[in-house]
Amino acid sequence: MDNPVSFERRARVGIITIDSPPVNALGHAVRVGLVAALEEAERDPQVEAIVLNSAGRIFTAGADIREFGKPSQTPTLPEVIAAFDRSAKPVVAALHGTAFGGGLELPMGCHYRVALAGTKIGLPEVKLGLLPGAGGTQRLPRLTGAERALDMIVTGNPVEAAEALELGIVDAVYPGGTALDAALDFIEKTGVDKLTATPVSSRTDRIANTDPAVFAAARAKLAKEKPNLFSPQRCVDAVEAAVQLPFTEGLARERALFQECMASPQRAGLIHAFFGEREVAKIPSLPAGTPLRKVEKVGVIGAGTMGSGIAMCFASAGIPVTLVDAKPEALQAGLANVRRTYEGNAKKGRISAEEAERRIALVQPAESVDALSDADLVIEAVFEDMELKKKIFAALDRVCKQGAILATNTSTLDVDAIAEATSRPQDVCGMHFFSPANIMRLLENVRGEKTSDDVIATIMDVARRIGKVGVLVGVCYGFVGNRMLHQRGREAMALVEEGAAPEQVDAVLKGFGFPMGHFAMSDLAGVDVGWRIRQERRKAGAPDAIAPNWLDRIAELGRYGQKTGAGIYRYEQGDRTPRPDPQVAKILEDYRREAGIAPRPIDDQEILERCLYAMVNEGARILEEGVALRAVDIDVIWLHGYGFPAYRGGPMFWADQVGLGKIHDTLVALHEKTGEPHWKPSPLLERLAKAGQTFASL
Questions:
Q1: How far apart are CA 607 and CA 609, in angstroms?
Q2: Number of neighbours of residue 540 by Cβ within 10 angstroms
Q3: Counting beta carbons within 10 angstroms of the beta carbon of residue 231, is it exposed (0 to 12), middle (13 to 18) or buried (19 or more)?
């Protein structure tokens, strides 16, 4: 906008208003406007107090993230805030909607802050691999005390206005109206003559007697909970500087620490992840203005853990669900899971008891698909058996109204083959939820060969409505996430066959930043799940079906993982900690001997490269085939569905950082050494590597 900041005077109050849609980001034009408006207010002899206001739904979302990494343009945000800080006329910031990052640092440079009820206030920079770099680490402790400021800055989690008032961040909270009216009322009730221009930077009462042990405890906690992250420890250093140094020296220390975070590769990965989540919602192939189908009633078939979890996704969004299962005992178990989950959320204070009951009531049971005749969207979530799924879709074709979207939650089977069981393949798609469905944010939306554009547009919108990160993928075995996971799994299995212990492979993956290793994840998901899928593939005569392996032997013993107390690891009663099991070591020893494999020592670097480079190579094939639209789609799938460390940006982003040339050369060496076709670099990877390009350049 030409004039994103305006100034007007009402009686003795000057009003500065930011109006820079959609989020009032503090970009260069806004910063220039703020300084100019403040100077105008200070020059006006009739202005005795100033209100810093903003138009739109939120106060400001903070710094313009698009400027990160680019040369600074004056006035910088710290310079703008310093101008407000030293204003001789008292400034009242009028907060509403959200005030995040620089959007809170700017008000903390003002002398007073008022907020509308429900306003969210926070410093989330740590989630982008940064720390508040415009005085936030120096001013917030002066308002709240060091310990509470540490909690807000290190977690990046916001607080609502009522809590901000208790903490001392804001001076008043108003129940309604506009934030500008609230600020004007605050000035009137306080009295213009009684307002002072005492800056937050001059306050020391909340930090004067801070115990140094607070910082030692914070560092120890971070070392345990976030051992791989760079910026949280820098946040502690910055808040400690606020306590130990004069304000100007503390600001200098904060700026130096901020620059360290900016230079960290973790910052680049986290910002890529941030933008990626927004990018995947855009489907270039969809014509502009593609209409959406109405989705007001949903049916879910299969009341198991997955089906009941999917039902809760919709109930939590206020959408009625009919949960269908032909087995009454399974149906009751599914409903019990719904009730147990929501009541548990209420006990933890996440929702009210009334809200829990409202959501529970939105899930209605049925024992036949005949109950789905008026559903707008039906999601099948039964066991991975093609014949069973085809039978269900044939029944849905008979029962469901015209225009209903028929979706399968399959994680591996052919969506096009399932669609053939109906007379309306244009209405059939995949909606692959991840377990636990009511918690995991990823939703792989699968476009079949004949799926219509309006169905695609609708299920991507449904993903947004139920709080998921929807990513559009094409049809192939395993889609994107599981297809790449199978490559990692193949290597993890092979490494163990060759001599590594399951716990060594898992330790390498955890050290890389995954929340758990491959084999611990298998135990969590259930060893029997993969075993039954492998059996299905063998039964179907699939060309890529895996021969019986050592993991099958574990499953055949009834060791299904955490749910049976033993799988690849053993588990003690009430404890999910995976422990190496001598019985599994014996199974491996016998398997290797019978297969004629002489175990060898395997170093951690080989484990890391084989597990991750196999994924990258498969990701390149997926891109080449068009199963994924963009490299960022693959990254987002792995970030939100498989625990890929966000600070590494996703597998394809990480590969670019490692260097595609290095990965290509390693793959070539493995291919030459083993002769295995899966180690042959994909044509896309080879082309990019030889041209010195990246996946991001596509």
A1: 6
A2: 11
A3: buried
Q: Is there a catalytic annotation at residue 105? A: yes
* List of the chain residues with pLDDT < 50: none
Q: Which two tokens stand for residue 325?
A: 């299962």
φ, ψ dihedrals at 367, nearest 5°: -105, 5
CA distance 26 to 62: 6
User: How much is the pLDDT for 610?
Assistant: 98
From the candidates 8, 67, 125, 624, give the one annotated as an active-site residue. Answer: 125
pTM, two decimals, is 0.89
The amino acid present at 667, given as its one-letter code, is: L
Q: Ramachandran region of residue 242, left (φ > 0), alpha (ψ -120 to 50) or beta?
A: alpha
Residue 533 pLDDT: 79
Amino acid at 685: L
Continuous segment of H or E residues that includes residue 17: strand 13-18
Tens-place pLDDT, residues 492-519: 999 999 999 999 999 999 999 999 999 9
The tokens of 292 are what? Answer: 């959406």
154: left (phi over 0), alpha (psi -120 to 50) or beta: alpha
**pLDDT of 548:** 87
Edge to edge, the sheet with strand 120-122 lists: 98-100, 120-122, 159-160
Of residues 48, 105, 384, 618, which has the active-site annotation?
Answer: 105
**Which neighbouring-strand residues pair with 93?**
52, 113
Strands 159-160 and 120-122: antiparallel
Give residue 535's pLDDT.
85
Question: Which residues does 589 contact at the CB level (< 8 Å), separation at least 6?
Answer: none
Angle at 389 between CA 404 and CA 336, to 5 degrees: 80
**What kind and span of H or E run contains 683?**
helix 683-691
Which tokens belong to 389? 């799924």
Cα distances (Å, whole numbers) of residue 71 to 77, 80, 261, 268:
13, 17, 16, 16
The pLDDT score that the predictor gives to residue 395 is 98
What pLDDT, on a 0 to 100 scale, did the predictor assign at position 461?
97
Instruction: Please report the sign of the dihedral spanned by the C-alpha atoms of residue 542, residue 543, residue 548, residue 554.
Output: negative
Per DSSP, 60 falls in state: B
Q: Please tell me the distance from the alpha carbon of residue 120 to that of residue 99, in angstroms, as a whole number.
A: 6
Q: Which two tokens stand for residue 290?
A: 């593609």
Paired tokens of 535? 């059996």
**Lookup: tokens for 384:** 């991975």
Give 80-145 as a DSSP string: HHHHHHT-SS-EEEEE-SEEETHHHHHHHTSSEEEEETT-EEE--GGGGT---TTTHHHHHHHHH-
For residue 384, the number of C-alpha atoms closer than 13 Å in the C-beta half-sphere is 20
Helix (H) or strand (E) holding 13: strand 13-18
Q: Is 125 a catalytic residue?
A: yes
Give the number of other CB atoms < 10 A from CB of residue 42.
15
Instruction: Give the H/E segment covering residue 149.
Output: helix 146-155
- Please count the CA atoms within 13 angstroms of the CA of 34 that sit on its side-chain side: 36
Determine the longest span between alpha carbons in the chain, in angstroms: 93
* DSSP-derived 3-state class of residue 351: coil
Give the pLDDT score at 37: 97
- Other C-beta atoms closer than 10 Å to the C-beta of 211 total 11
